[in-house]
Amino acid sequence: MKSLPYIIISVLFVVLFHGCYKQHNETHRAVIRQLQHYPESTLQDIYKSFFQDEFGPGHLIGDTNHAREYFDYELLEMTSSGNYIAEPCGTGHNFFRVPMDLVKDGKITPEDYFAAFIESASFYRIPEPGVWHEKWHIIVQEIEAMHLSIENFEQDKAALDGMLQSGQTAVHHSKVYSERYDPHYRIMGKAYWEKLKESL
Hints:
It is globular and about 45 Å long. A hairpin with a 6-residue loop joins strand 1 (87-88) and strand 2. The chain has one domain. The protein has helices at 4-37, 43-55, 64-77, 101-104, 110-121, 129-144, 153-165, 175-181, 190-196, and strands spanning 87-88, 95-99, 185-189. It is built from 9 helices and 3 strands; from the N terminus they run αααββαααααβα. A 3-stranded antiparallel β-sheet has the order 1-2-3. The protein is mainly alpha-helical.
């Protein structure tokens, strides 16, 4: 009969293996989804998506009034592409990118949309640079194992590594992504988006 310590160790191994396997699959699916929808994404854009799911939109909001002014200005200047589908950030555990087209085309009121965005920001967590750097390092290893063709991968990998080593964590979309896809969205918590879309 096997000893109790052996059984405990075996169970822990299975649990840990299952957790790592699940995380690997989720990362794989998230990267494939990003490249299917936005094939010109760079590693910087993939990083941004995973970062947003991990930490939310709070780093963007220092002044609510200013955030609303910028939102109104962007809404006025943008052209709707008719995109009404919210996209999960990263693996989609926490946050979604909700297209502003919903507001531009009158599907959701500006007040309801912006309120959900601001409320979601209250769940923003300040990144611990070292911890996040290590987690991103694992994600990059998983992406490398997929043998994808991502333009300027090594350059972006080095740039992101240097940024994280210096204690910085947030990035913009890459220039090529911004020019090609002209993104207009705000980040919302999964629960807030689920509640908001009930009004559609």
